[in-house]
Amino acid sequence: MQAGTTGSESFEQWRETMRHTRAAELTSEHADTFAAVVHQTHVGPVSVLKTSFPSIQVRRTQRMIRRCDQELYHLTLLTSGRGLVETGGAPQPLTAGNLHLVASPQPYDARFRGEPAAGGERAHVDGVGVDLPMSMLPLPARRVRPLLGRALPADRGAGVLLATFLTGLAAQAALLRPGEAARLSTATVDLLSAWLAGQLDIEGSLPPQTRQAVMLHRVKSFIHQNLHHPDLTPSVVAAAHHVSLSYLHREFTRDSQGETLAAFIRRQRLAKAYRDLADPALHDLPVHVVAARCGIPQASVFTRAFKATHGMTPSDHRRRARTVVPPGSEQAQAAE
């Protein structure tokens, strides 16, 4: 459902969409003026949600649990607004930036409200999340139970990786091809498992393949954050992750279907340069400065590599990007 309808009809549409994976009683004090957005996409057995709404109460009772034979984990990253979740103990307050996890076999009561917005905009809650079968996690449900309903940090370690991954997955889920969806559903489970194991201090109980997958996610995240360093090499990456270069090379090449770590770093540098050269906000930066920002300080080396990869010089790409008419602009409408 897209935003554009308001009132009780919009609320009923939103509630019906959410009920596909969350059998719960959903109410809102803004039901009569409800304006919401929800995007739901299935990535293999994982359901990905991105939603925005003014306020909501989600209540799941023992009676609802008895009527439903699906056992799911519901993981949510709150990106704006605040919440209060109760799973039998003391209510847990949630704020933007928190991750929280509930399980369908457990009763819970959650309330979410939007924070007052700047500029007179209506207060709203924003969040992204995933629903997945509990059986997909390699961690026993009894080990995960102490974390259910709690406000958990997403600002360090595996939490940062998981939050960044969820945000990107929600933005791109509808565009994924079937093969990509299968790989990303596995990645979702690996990152969630590593994050939960870290919260419980039981990383050693994870299967070796899960630990390896998370290590490679950390490696790629480290590379993306450090592309501006010209001395970012496979040796530096291996040292930063406390593994040998030969081990990292072997595992990375196997996971990436033959692409070496050095080739990946080079490809990411050139991809960043391609985006930056087309960015109107960076049009005043000389080409060699853009190259240096991507970790390639030698202008001649950058030009040759860019042309070999993209079939044109960096300057030609920038000129071409300037002449592209954005969809929906006045020029594009006049041409129709």
From TrEMBL:
Keyword Nucleus recorded = no
Q: Which residues form the HTH araC/xylS-type domain?
A: 217-320
Q: Which Pfam families match?
A: AraC_binding_2 (PF14525), HTH_18 (PF12833)
Name of the protein described by the UniProt record = AraC family transcriptional regulator
Tell me which UniProt keywords the record has, alphabetically: DNA-binding, Transcription, Transcription regulation
PANTHER family documented for this protein: ARAC SUBFAMILY (PTHR46796:SF6), HTH-TYPE TRANSCRIPTIONAL ACTIVATOR RHAS-RELATED (PTHR46796)
**N-terminal signal peptide:** none
Q: Which InterPro entries does the entry link to? A: AraC-bd_2, AraC_XylS_family_regulators, Homeodomain-like_sf, HTH_AraC
User: Which domain of life does this protein belong to?
Assistant: Bacteria
Q: Where is this region: Disordered?
A: 310-336
